[in-house]
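Supplementary Methods. Inverse-folding protocol.

Structures were first reduced to a discrete structure-token string of length 257. This string, shown here, constituted the complete conditioning input.
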């Protein structure tokens, strides 16, 4: 029997070796078999597998091109039902906004579909997943690890779903806290995430109405402002990128007025 302890680093190495020799499904099955001999609980096994396989795909360079249909199936397999429904809602809403604002509809769909792909990890796992990928964890992210899912997702689209597109990756990276000087696609994904049909919170109807009538920057000024109010009311931290995003748009508006 292989002397493999429950150690993320050893698990990563084992994946690395198997990832080179075999396909992912086969390597995953073998990993489960190895872990089962170590008296680990199902939950612990799932954690080892989930923690390391994206990394292995990346280094093994096994990124295959998936059709959008295959991406949808893979996402459905990985996310819980409500999160998957939310993702489809964001994808469809993003396409509507893309049509209205002249943005590439396929990119909008794929970015919307995959924006929350890193939510397959539990919150406690996100810092480890970020470190695995060389993502710097700032003090706001340290205090609010959920924010990391956006940065991890921006890399996972390539690792798991074979999407190698900087515009889509950036839109996913920015979907939670925003950024200074966002592209139209960034803005569409940010806003679609707030108003997709499964969202239900006070004020959502007002935001949905804006989607029909207002210009994109006006929409974003309202959306970013609402987000800041929301986190302040929850006593959560305001991310500096959200403030930068809002100030940038307000300054631009004043310069144009
Ligand atoms: Fe998200
Ligand atoms: Fe989301």
């Amino acid at each position: 029997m292989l002397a493999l302890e429950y150690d993320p680093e050893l698990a990563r190495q084992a994946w690395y070796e198997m990832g080179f020799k075999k396909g992912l499904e086969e390597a995953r099955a073998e990993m489960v078999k190895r872990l089962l001999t170590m008296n680990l609980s199902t939950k612990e096994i799932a954690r080892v597998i989930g923690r390391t396989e994206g990394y292995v795909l990346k280094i093994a360079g096994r990124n295959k091109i998936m059709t959008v249909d295959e991406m949808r199936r893979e996402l459905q397999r990985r996310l819980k039902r409500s999160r998957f429904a939310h993702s489809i809602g964001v994808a469809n809403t993003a396409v509507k906004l893309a049509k209205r604002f002249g943005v590439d509809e396929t990119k909008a769909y794929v970015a919307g579909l995959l924006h929350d792909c890193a939510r397959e990890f539990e919150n406690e796992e996100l810092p480890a997943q970020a470190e695995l990928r060389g993502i710097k964890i700032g003090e706001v992210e340290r205090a609010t690890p959920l924010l990391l899912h956006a940065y991890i997702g921006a890399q996972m689209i390539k690792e798991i779903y074979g999407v190698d597109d900087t515009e889509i990756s950036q839109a996913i990276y920015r979907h939670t806290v925003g950024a200074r000087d966002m592209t139209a696609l960034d803005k569409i994904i940010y806003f679609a995430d707030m108003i997709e049909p499964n969202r239900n919170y006070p004020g959502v109807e007002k935001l949905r109405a804006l989607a029909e009538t207002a210009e994109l920057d006006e929409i974003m000024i309202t959306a970013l402002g609402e987000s800041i109010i929301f986190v302040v009311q929850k006593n959560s931290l305001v991310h500096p990128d959200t403030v930068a995003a809002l100030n940038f748009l307000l300054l631009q508006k004043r310069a144009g007025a």
